[in-house]
Amino acid sequence: MISELAIINGTVFDPLNNIRGEKKDIFIRDGKIVGSVRRRCRKIDASGMVVMPGGVDLHSHIAGSKVNSGRLLRPEDHRQDVEPKTRHTLSGVGHSVPSTRTTGYRYARMGYTTVFEPATPPLKTRHTHEELNSTPIIDKACFPLFGNNWFVMEYLRDEKIKECAAYVAWMLKATKGYAIKIVDPGGVEVWGWGKFLRGLDETVTNFDVTPRQIIRGLCKVNKFLNLPHPIHVHTNNLGNPGNYLTTIQTMDAVKDLYDGGKPIIHITHVQFTGFSGSSWINLGSGAPEIADYVNKHSHVSIDLGQVVFGDTTTMTADGPFQYFLHRISGNKWVNLDVEAETGSGIGL
Questions:
Q1: What is the number of other CB atoms lying within 10 angstroms of the CB of residue 226?
Q2: Regarding beta strands 231-234 and 181-183, do their DSSP bridges make them parallel or antiparallel, or are they unpaired?
Q3: What is the largest CA-CA distance in the chain?
Q4: What's the rounded Cα separation, in Å, for the pair 340 and 275?
Q5: What is the pTM of this model?
Q6: Has residue 91 got a pLDDT over 90?
Q7: Cα–Cα dist 63/40, whole Å
Q8: Residue 145 carries which DSSP code?
Q9: Does the N terminus or the C terminus of the chain have fewer Cβ atoms within 10 A?
Q10: Distance between CA atoms of 216 and 250, rounded to whole angstroms?
């Protein structure tokens, strides 16, 4: 390891320290930024380049069973994008669902240092870790799924928060998971019985529990365990007109549990849960209303997600939504069910 390093002549962006595009030098000793280093240390001339903290992608499906199903579903995705072997890298393939090494190389080229796989079924997380271990350069972690877990729903139905917390803690330790992920809480289980669940107060078939109880209960569990990341929530009703109201209701459902400090709920890919309107005819954007709520409340954080224009692959633990998307597009689609835990859908 290089003990001392100077990155010189770069244009530095560091919002945490209020540095916004200043030309200055960065000095590093033993992996930490310091005020100065020896004059004869190794230097990297960053003239004409941006120097900034490494990017952290909080939500990207890069590893695990559903990602591998996406690769199997789309051989044409591999043919159109081949990563050649070089002196320093191994070969790989994949345009929208790259192989593991290609994923690591491309994230590193974009300036990312850390990526989180945000939805892994506990029973299949061994596979997730195998693929994460095969992904080079970047740091990785994964979020096990709990929003349709039978044991979790039974505990929360009976208001057994401590017992649920013990189960979640054991599961996170057993799967080496980082955070609690909730996808379409209760909705994936309901879809297994041929039904759709849209609202927070509808009851999950056979479990007599609601999405609101699942979200609030797992938020309490998260606070009880003092986990490093808030509950990571993919809301109910994703992809449907008017669902911005569901997003705001989901954020508001845990507002009273907030007692200051860091956010206690993170809502992900809000552009897919931010639609206004009552039908596809008058579909619009509820972004102003969501932004207004977020700006006025400290207990919530959000991310926007990413729309990839053109040929891509979609995947989510929200199997009902993926089926809905398949019905609209008519494209290839596959659905998976993981016993007593969750489900998923992959399509294009």
A1: 6
A2: parallel
A3: 70
A4: 31
A5: 0.91
A6: yes
A7: 42
A8: B
A9: N
A10: 9
